[in-house]
Amino acid sequence: MPLMENNNLFNKWKNGLARTRKTTFGRIANFLGTSEINDQLWEDLEALFIQADLGIETTLDVIRVLQERVHKEGLTHSEELAQAVTEELRSRLETPPALALSEKPTVILIAGVNGSGKTTTMAKLGKRFQEQGKKVVFGAADTYRAAAIDQLQVWGERLGIPVIAGQPEADPGAVTYDTVKSAVARKADVALIDTAGRLHTRFNLMEELKKVHRVAGKALQSAPHAAWLVMDATTGQNALHQAQAFNDAISLDGVILAKLDSSARGGMAFAIQKELGLPILYAGLGESADDLEIFDPEAFVAGILADF
Ligand SMILES: Nc1nc2c(ncn2[C@@H]2O[C@H](COP(=O)(O)OP(=O)(O)O)[C@@H](O)[C@H]2O)c(=O)[nH]1
Ligand SMILES: [Mg+2]
């Protein structure tokens, strides 16, 4: 990739992570630059990681590894810790597996709670796949809110992607079935299915998602080929419990971390990997259809610590 394009991409990550950096991680530089490695420093680091939404478990683990390293390598000045912090954080993020889209159509369920960014992320993914020369179909299986169907239809028109939708309150399973059948008939490469995420009727929601999952398999034996969870990066640690419930219901293949640009809680990326054991596939860095990037651990860590 030409350097200029790389720089643009890096700047996009850096800008997208500005809130997370300014609120928490960026402050590491202040106290690492000035003090000895002592108990106070460890306490400050621990407090900062917790505030940064790494979660207690991940925080204690990171601190333990850093302390071991200081001991083993005989580091005495906190400046020497900066490199170790960068490396330790980087090592905790997985590079997402390359997406094959080898089935035709590859059927992907997009799940997540209301407002997390599912429909917007579908549009971003649709655009990205189209740009790779793929034929995309959208399924509007979030049938509880008429506005949700309209929103997907608006994106579909804008991007030239057909939207398979039923009436409001239609059975999400039926819409899923029609979407998969239609994707097969149209010889589409990818079918992206938007699903409902009402939190207040959580049990029903999970049962319904399981049904959507099963019905996709009735329409096409190998489907769905993936289930991705869109997580709102502004909700921090709370979102992890919700994610676990989705994972229990439909066995997720990965997470898309939306709204990183409006979040100060980007540190939750570390907790997602440790506590859910799921790769982060993409990051949402803005509201437009172009604001989705393949998750890049190097760019992410560089972006949260850019002031180092
Ligand atoms: N800043 C920002 N806003 C986003 C991003 N993704 C989604 N949104 C906004 O979040 C709100 C909810 O998104 P929507 O796709 O409707 O969520 P859904 O209910 O899960 O389908 C909308 O106002 C989106 O524009 C993102 O990556 N960055
Ligand atoms: Mg929606």
Characteristics:
13 helices; binds guanosine-5'-diphosphate; alpha/beta; binds magnesium ion; 308 residues; 8-stranded mixed β-sheet; 52% helix; elongated
The unique ligands bound to this protein are: guanosine-5'-diphosphate, magnesium ion
Radius of gyration: 21 Å
Main sheet overview: 8 strands, mixed
General form? elongated
Estimate percent helicity.
Answer: 40-55%
Q: Count of helices?
A: 13
Mean pLDDT: 92
Number of separate strands: 8
Q: Report the portion of residues in β strands.
A: 5-15%
Distance between the termini: 26 Å
- Element order, helices and strands? HHHHHHEHEHEHEHEHEHEEH
Note poorly predicted spans.
none
* Assembly level: single chain
Largest beta sheet: what is the strand line-up? 3-2-4-1-5-6-7-8
What can you tell me about this protein's structure?
The protein has 308 residues and is an alpha/beta fold. The chain is 52% helix and 13% strand. It has 13 helices and 8 strands. The chain has helices spanning 3-16, 18-23, 28-34, 39-51, 56-73, 79-91, 118-131, 146-159, 172-185, 202-219, 238-250, 268-276, 297-304, and strands at 106-111, 136-141, 163-165, 190-195, 226-232, 254-258, 280-284, 292-294. It has an 8-stranded mixed beta sheet with strand order 3-2-4-1-5-6-7-8, sandwiched between helices. α5 crosses α6 (79-91) and α9 runs parallel beside α10. The two termini are 26 Å apart. 44% of the residues are buried. The mean pLDDT is 92. It binds guanosine-5'-diphosphate and magnesium ion. Guanosine-5'-diphosphate binds next to α7. The site of guanosine-5'-diphosphate (GDP) has 19 residues, from α7.
